[in-house]
Amino acid sequence: MGDGPTSRVPAERRRRRPARSGVVLSQDLIVDRALALVAQQGPEALSVRRLGAALGCDPSALYRYFRNTDDLLLAVADRLIGEALDGFEPGDDWVAGLREMAHRIHRSYREHPRIAALAAYRVTRRPHEFRAVDTGIGLLRRAGFGEADAVRHYAAFVDTVLGHAALDAASLSLSPERRVGDEVAWTSVYQSLPAGEYPQLAAVRGELGLMAEGAFEGAVELLLEGLVGVAARG
């Protein structure tokens, strides 16, 4: 999907129109099909031709709902955020709220690894993202941080979460052989490195298998501990 007739989108994108297959097109339906196509065929499936074929409509009809492929990608990315935060109502404990928020986002991206690799670093400018940012900054303000600190700390928090989500998603998108090869390297290749050349690796040789485990939870806990410490110092 290239750049389309952008002037028509805002007025028409909310209209529901039947495709030639009889399916009533909508933004939600197009996003649903885009998610399914990318999951099955990879990022290259995010094209107007393939989406049109999957929906049974003329590809040009998609321009009534999305300006171009990037506009659709941002909508898909926002859907992941919405799925992550569905039913999320943080309580009084701001640390527990941030922890749950982090795990929800990470889990949602792992469930859609091919989209996550494309979208984790984007700013969607859409309602689900608005809610996520508002919720995260609200939790940090509840901790006692001022406006500027709440924004800065939220940026560090969400970038840490999305960075690990994108990394883990990229790993999940590898073929099983490559993924296993990367994991085994820590207990095979690294185990055989000469101690004279790599003394620090030799000293922790028995623990290097930990490198194959995901670092997401540890990184989140370190960040939360740091935020607690900063909050305690006022």
UniProtKB/TrEMBL annotation:
Residues 24-84 form the HTH tetR-type domain. Residues 47-66 bind DNA. The keyword Protein biosynthesis does not apply. Transmembrane segments: none annotated. Keywords: DNA-binding, Transcription, Transcription regulation. It holds the Pfam family TetR_C_1. It comes from the Bacteria. PANTHER family: HTH-TYPE TRANSCRIPTIONAL REGULATOR RUTR, TRANSCRIPTIONAL REGULATORY PROTEIN. This is TetR/AcrR family transcriptional regulator. It comes from Streptomyces cavernicola.
